[in-house]
Amino acid sequence: MFSQEKYLKALNFAAKAHKEQKTPYGLPYLTHLTSVAMEVIHACEESKLEIEKSDLAISVALLHDTIEDTNITYDDLYNEFDAKIAEGVEALTKDFSLSKKDQMADSINRLMSQPYEVQMVKLADRITNLQKPPESWDNLKILNYHKEAKFILSCLKNCNVYLSKRLEDKINNYIVYIN
Ligand SMILES: [Mn+2]
Question: What domain of life does the native source organism fall in (predicted)?
Fold first, then answer.
């Protein structure tokens, strides 16, 4: 179970923040956010997570790219939502002052001290991003993305058994895109 009202509040906030932003497939960015939220909702229901935990996971899923990709700040999320949501989204945000190579490990490190509900969003995000790679990606980028997905799974697999299994399947199926 989860709160429909909280879902709508986070969805509308994210829609306003991401404005006209598009996914690498040229679709409205909301398709990415609602896909990640859908994976999280499915896992929450399968795991029969209590309502407060589901609400945290789902809100963070809808808001997970706001600090990284829009002008929304930690303080905005703290004021509009709460500390848990703001901290969760911040942990899912890359630190652009680091080298590209170090950004993922740093974010994973920060996620490890977050509740499982926040870690679930990282798995759902990568599940969603393991669809057919965008046309613009070369083989090396696809290969690295696959490798990075395995690293994410190995670090966060304990947060939810359904999402771990689904990510594992997605990783295995992604091999068809590697030349
Ligand atoms: Mn994302």
Answer: Bacteria
Ligand 1 centroid from CA 38, angstroms: 13
Q: Residue 148: exposed, middle, or buried by beta-carbon count in 10 A (0-12, 13-18, 19+)?
A: middle
| 6 CA to centre of ligand 1 in angstroms | 20
Would you say domain 4-177 falls under CATH 3.30.1600.10?
no
User: Considering the entire predicted model, what is its pTM?
Assistant: 0.97
d(CA 153, CA 165): 9
67 Cα: distance to centroid of ligand 1 (angstroms): 11
**102 CA distance to ligand 1 centroid (A)?**
18
Predicted local distance difference test score (pLDDT) of residue 100: 86
Using DSSP's 3-state secondary structure scheme, residue 22 falls into strand
Diameter of the chain by CA atoms? 47
What percentage of the chain exceeds 70 in pLDDT? 100
Q: Indicate the domain borders of the chain.
A: 4-177
